[in-house]
Amino acid sequence: MARLARLYAPDTSQLIQVQLSSQVLPEMLEVRFRLLTWIEQTSRHYGLVVHAWSVTQESIFLFCTPSSPRIISSVVQAVGRHLASTLRVGAVFMSRYRSCLVESGEYTLACMVWLESQVYQQEGMSIQDILPWSSIGWHTGHCTEKDTWIHLHEAYRQLGNTPLERQVKYRQLCEEGISAGMYQKIQTALMGQWALGSDDFIAQIAIVANRRVSPIARGRPRRRSK
What's the pTM? Predict the structure, then answer.
């Protein structure tokens, strides 16, 4: 079966997961900081607008808004080349990266919380410990660095009128976590590489996306009544 083309729709954010290969895992302690630098540099170079990120021992996660269909692929490939030349190994990624289109609002915030909590989920770190490996510090106020490559998403800006209000509200979202239902929706959309959002969003994005945005219903089509 032919694999689906990369899903893209104009002005629409995407959740990205790049799974690292087993050849990279033993070297992550050495290259993790450099990996962050390569992600930042290549994102800036190709003009990829990044809203949130995290790097675990096993994967790279990005929440971003590309301005053209090939920007994300260009960034991922460039990071892969840096990683491969440094470690002098073969394939540095397990497979093609996975992605899904995401509706703004609650779905965007849920994806950001899900993404930024991956380091905690996989490695059992506290919020202070995960600061170097996730953008959570910029959203909760734990990181005060001004020269950042993170572009605050409009859904995040809507959390409050001031930076402090937004940070407090986002910390609450992180502490509460996402529901089991939302967690499953994110996993399903990301693994299937579909659109994630309300029924209205799915219907609207299907008009402008470069391919179908949801799986085809299983089973035979219903017969029309005479």
Answer: 0.90
